[in-house]
Input
Amino acid sequence: MSRRILPSLATAVLALTIASPAAVLQNVAPGQAASQEGVSPVVRQVQKKLQGLTTFTVWDWITFDLKNGVLTLNGYASTPTLKQDAGRVVKGIQGVSSVDNQIKVLPYSPMDDRIRAEVYNRIYTQPSLRKYNANQGSLGRAIGPGNGIALAAGGVTNAPPLGYHAIHIIVNNGNVTLYGVVLNKSDSQIAGMQTNTAPGAFKVTNDLIVQNSESQSK
Output
């Protein structure tokens, strides 16, 4: 079993206010504290590069492992571009000898896009969950007026919501998984219940991590 390094609560709250990208998580050995203290400079560089990707959105989730210089990327990308970008930006980091890009590209599906939109609206319009969204509102508000044409032409994958989102929504052939970090168990439960009400969602898996919770480990 391994546990993930999480940003501090203060960092997470600050990110909400400045619309920073969501945290990229690293799988680490059992017993290592779930904090940024003691993180190696190589890991920090990897996190910085991945967090800076403009193609990384609420529809995506990335984790990584670093062992003996081999960096393995995992997670889900809603577009092939994100997978390519993630592999590209971490190459050349001192201390990374090779990159094994295992990020799964999600198949494009109008049905999945409809589910993404339904889940997004159900989660981020909830009063108790708005704090996890820089836009604090519906999908229409989050994509902004300039993305209307892209939304109509290709769905929410081509017009992703703007700004920071602590709760990421992964949809794969009707199956929905929630990833991210929330402040308490109640918020996690509310997000899960709201997702379960989304039309078209076949199966819902709530993998949200409660900040500082020792029970959330793999």
